[in-house]
Amino acid sequence: MKKILVIHGPNLNLLGQREVSVYGSTTLEEINNQLAQVARENGVEVVFFQSNHEGDIVDRIGRCPADGFQAIVINPAAYTHTSVAIRDAVSAVNIPTVEIHLSNIYKREEFRHHSMLAPAAVGQISGFGVHSYVLGLLAAVKMINA
Questions:
Q1: How would you class 17 by CB atoms within 10 Å of its CB: exposed for 0-12, middle for 13-18, buried for 19 or more?
Q2: So which residues are the catalytic ones?
Q3: 7 partner at 20 to 30 Å CA-CA among 28, 58, 100, 111?
């Protein structure tokens, strides 16, 4: 079975209680449950990873080839705008990666308009709330089945 890794970056463990007006009331567990259902419907295995620590995310990306992942869906959260290390890890593993964001980063503060990861990702989906995750997962499924 084809495998996709879903990475949730810093503070996403606080979804449902954190800035509800920006990120909505859906919890991370609810997002993961929804993605697991979409994965089952599309015949892929999905594995979830959340960390507030940049190095842990870099390490997890680096293990993707050995762990048999064919694609990555990542919400790098605040690391979107700062992490050359995560960008380099994605480039190094050469696994199709979809960058997603719950909010539209281009309608927010100026510093959020630049993504360090975007040049290494296959594509970016932002601004659709929880649906950004679903769309990102479906895009990853299409890529690995193409």
A1: exposed
A2: 23, 101
A3: 111
Give the sign of the dihedral formed by CA 140, CA 145, CA 87, CA 111: negative
Instruction: Give me the sign of the Cα torsion angle 84, 143, 126, 30.
Output: negative
Positions of E strands within 28-129: 44-50, 69-75, 97-101, 123-126
78: exposed, middle or buried (C-beta count within 10 Å: 0-12, 13-18, 19+)?
A: middle
pTM exceeds 0.90:
yes
Q: 75-108, pLDDT tens digit by residue?
A: 999 999 899 999 999 999 999 999 999 988 877 6
* CA atoms within 13 A of residue 107's CA, in its CB half-sphere: 8
What's the rounded Cα separation, in Å, for the pair 130 and 110? 23
State whether residue 91 is helix, strand or coil. helix
* Sheet strands side by side (includes 97-101): 44-50, 2-8, 69-75, 97-101, 123-126
Q: To the nearest 10°, report the CA torsion of 15, 18, 24, 29.
A: 10
